[in-house]
Amino acid sequence: MAKDREARPNYHGDHRRLGEILLAEGVIDRDALALSLIAQRDSRARIGEILVVRGGVDRSAVAAAAARQAGFEFIDLRFSSLDAALIRPEDIDLFIRERIAPWRIEAGVVIYVAATPDAAAARLAQRGGGSTDVAAVEARALSRALIDACGPRLAERSAVRRPDARSLRSGAAGWQRGAAVAALTGAAALAVTRPDLALALFLWSSAGVMIANGGLWGAALLAHPRARPQARKQTRESADFRPLPVVSLLVPLYHEPETAPLLLRSLSALDYPPELLDIKVILERDDSATLDALKALNPPPHVEILIAPDGAPRTKPRALNFALDFARGAFIGVYDAEDRPAPDQIRKIAAQFTAEAPDVACIQARLGYYNATENWLTRCFEIEYASWFDAMLPGLFGLGMPIPLGGTSLFIRREALETAGGWDSHNVTEDADLGMMLARAGLKTALSDSLTEEEASSRPGAWIRQRSRWLKGYLSTWVTHMRRPVELLADLGAWRFIGFNLILLCAVLGYLLLPWLWLASLAGFWVNLRAAGAGAATDALVITTSAVLPIMFAAAAFGLWRRDRLNLVGWVLTLPLYWAFGAAAAYLALWELVSAPSKWRKTRHGVGRIAAELRRSALSSRDPGE
């Protein structure tokens, strides 16, 4: 008998329990079985997965025993491969969804391999189309075999998962390009022929943007919802009495060897049954440094490393789309390389999903920084996150506005994610875009008080590059969804349509206008703006600025108070200097929106002083036997 297969059972299965079979074969002992059965009472997971994750049992040994139990032949794909010639492009969806693939042809019979052979046999019988047979394989081995056999097709699938009409890859609409050219041409002509009128219009427009931004922040503060004790009680009850779901955590990495120790320690610290955590760490094929770093750390059994096939664009959302096909959870979460989620975060999220209404498709956790006190830039970054996640987003929720998701610590019902078409692989802020897609589908995003800490960019150059990607993504999302504004209005309704434009467009416009406003302020010392015909506009801008700045400062202070970081409140007054970096990032974003809309400016993590200390701590705390 070949090394890659076992003899076909000559009986119709083994009626013993899987644990008893493994015990009889000497794969486990009675203590391991007893401990796994105790764990099963809490998680209600399959005993085989518990034995693998908690008992260190080989996955292939468990899969082979399960095959004998069900009466199927077992194929070990570690020593074999799929016949790629048997895989038709139109069948890939079926094979991924059903965890099945054609292995080879023997005596005119197509032998399929499947992770759940009984279900696959029924599906093939329903499908028809010739003589077939089914054998069992281990699920992860099947995933790797499918990736090896269908790499280019899977790469294309992950790149174009989102329909053209809802993806940035279609570019701007003709009317958008025409409007942009007309606006720039008109502004230039007006500046030459009527500079007084051009100045007045600029100042009035700036005042309008200030009013829009300040009004949104002010409304968010006023609408900030109070905590609902009944909702928290329901969440606790749900956590106690409902079975816990399988949660898939997708963690895309690219050139992140420095973050590997801290990442694995953070994931291992999650207080959730590991057999119900399906963690996919996604790497690019050319990233051998991160792969070697992860392998050296010996990831726990519930962490699987997936290597994305080569393809374009090389972006985080493309990696997420690729991994989604191999995730098994009913809920999908996303983490970044440097994340330190609260240990109870997954339990809280699972309980909240149970307590929320069915139209709540997504839950966004709060984000903060573990290196907030590293320097002035990181302090301002933490202040900004406090105002956004503890003031603005709860306010948007209270106002019924669409929620632009954060890039990490978001959790979404799998069905809703697939209905939305996954992530737009061409959009460099796939998170904000996904939030708008959910809103267009009539679904809601709720907020969690659980906190995930990240590493703040501590160097101006890195900060500007990162922020330019975020702002470019906001503009990309606006361009994508506003290609058909009437359709967007119908999907969102007038109120949320206004919110969509305020959230995505006015924030970027505020940054773009900032240096010109400063220039106008400096010019005002030498030029009489009233004599230039801009007196009323100047007054309006001064009044709006005087009103908006206190609102922004109040939002920052409120956010710091909400997350108990009032030790940073003294730095709030320095935010205008911090916004200057945002202005530089906005112009870089605008340039790249035209020249390289899907270019991903990678943020390097693990380079700061505090991150280095945490990495050393993570390495020193590992069991030497691991």
TrEMBL record:
GO terms for molecular function: glycosyltransferase activity. One of its GO terms (cellular component) is membrane. The keyword Nucleotide-binding does not apply. The keyword tRNA-binding does not apply. Keywords: Glycosyltransferase, Membrane, Transferase, Transmembrane, Transmembrane helix. Residues 334-520 form the Glycosyltransferase 2-like domain. Its main location: membrane. It comes from the Bacteria. It is a multi-pass membrane protein. It holds the Pfam family Glyco_trans_2_3. It is found in: Membrane. The chain crosses the membrane at residues 198-223, 497-520, 540-561, 568-590. This is Glycosyltransferase. It comes from Pikeienuella piscinae.
